[in-house]
Amino acid sequence: MLSGLLLAAAPRSYPGAPAALKTAAVKDLDAASAKYRDVAQQIWGFAEVGYKEKRSSALLQQLLRDNGFAVEAGVADIPTAFVATYGSGQPVIGLLAEFDALPGLSQQATPSKQPVAGQDAGHGCGHHLFGTASVAAGVELKQLMAQGKFKGTIKVYGTPAEEGGSGKVYMVRAGLFKGVDAVIHWHPANENRTMLNNYLANSSAKFRFRGVSAHAAMSPERGRSGLDGVEAMNHMVNMMREHVPQETRIHYVITGGGKAPNVVPDFAEVYYYVRHPKKDDVKAIFARVVKAAEGAALGTGTTMEYEVIGGTHDLLLNQTLAQVLQQNLQRVGGVRYTEAERSFGQQIQASLGFPAPPLDAASQIGPYTLHEGGGSTDVGDVSYVVPTVGLEAATWVPGTAAHSWQAVACGGTEIGSKGMLVAAKTMTLTGLDLFTTPSLLRQAQEEHRRNVGSYQYQPLLGNRPPALNYRD
């Protein structure tokens, strides 16, 4: 990965695409903003979780088909994944489009916590905006290509189940990014900046313990508790935290622990994430977690099996592409709120429980500096096989955390749509630079080769098929 020293200097200025072409693209996107807002809000309402995004994926696919793209659906053995293609020849520029929601985050577009009746999931990470903005950028680039402004190939990748399902990993493994010269992506956030995050590599699995049922009072000696196995594993892993690298993050939830206190549970399940900035350390730490599970089963007289659910690489940064994107993000500018939106935002901030940055921070562009990450993304796997660059745009009011009801609420309003348009414009302008300036792609690819070095990409989730039911 790039060092902080390399990222300390101000980004270089590149000539890129003609200014008139960029101005026309921005005007086109402004004119079409209501259409894309409506698409995003439909997906916000669908709120479909990973690998279940049938309506969300179909809506984006149809929008691309209506605009002249050839769409291949169900790629990489994933029903909701797709690749939409327009044009031919080099260069080939890819755009990533996510659209999965999160379980347990149902929320109306209100500044107070109010779940949607009868709905469990919500777009707490803003992927309804993510997928729509990427499609908008792809359509705008297609329109300009059709006018003869430049040549090449545009690919929009519909990438399901980013939230723990590792959808892009299967798409990389299937070779869908071969021959692509660069990939552009973005993510909803509470600020506007080029994505220079130190994202963590991640391995996840469900550990299942099986024992023997018995009456917990009358014949406990006959039982062997699957829940005891889970609790013993969790205890050992929690002790292990003292003896792992300090950057390590380990999380778990018990997804099954029995049904009644007076029945010794013959089955229990716990779902684990293991993260670290380096993929090799993730492998080693995950192996220790497995050993803890094996010891727990031995000590409780149960049996244990585990299923790898996901695994993602850390994110390789590409300074050549990041400098281009930063220049375009500064050209586009941030988000400005109306008085009604400011009132909404103030109520959201009041619910956070801590002092938030001023609302006007959403109109600013963050500096070009490296940020310490804490999360993981399957974009990391894409970045190991093709030069990749991304941005964050203020789709939530400043101070709002991802994976919160406040993020869901903002994403259901014009606050989210305005940030989405910042992302669509920035990706489009960056795509124009890459299509019209071959030297940029050559530099980005040379940098990518240096960053990857001798490493031969291998998915951290191995050869398993897509975990299509991991949200069940």
UniProtKB/TrEMBL annotation:
Does the record bear RNA-binding in its keywords?
Answer: no
Please list the residue ranges annotated as the Peptidase M20 dimerisation domain: 204-296
Q: Which UniProt keywords apply?
A: Hydrolase
Does the UniProt entry include the keyword Transport?
Answer: no
* Record Pfam families: M20_dimer, Peptidase_M20
Q: Which domain of life is it from?
A: Bacteria
Q: Which PANTHER family match?
A: PEPTIDASE M20, XAA-ARG DIPEPTIDASE
The record's section on NCBIfam families has: amidohydrolases
Q: What is this protein called?
A: M20 family metallopeptidase
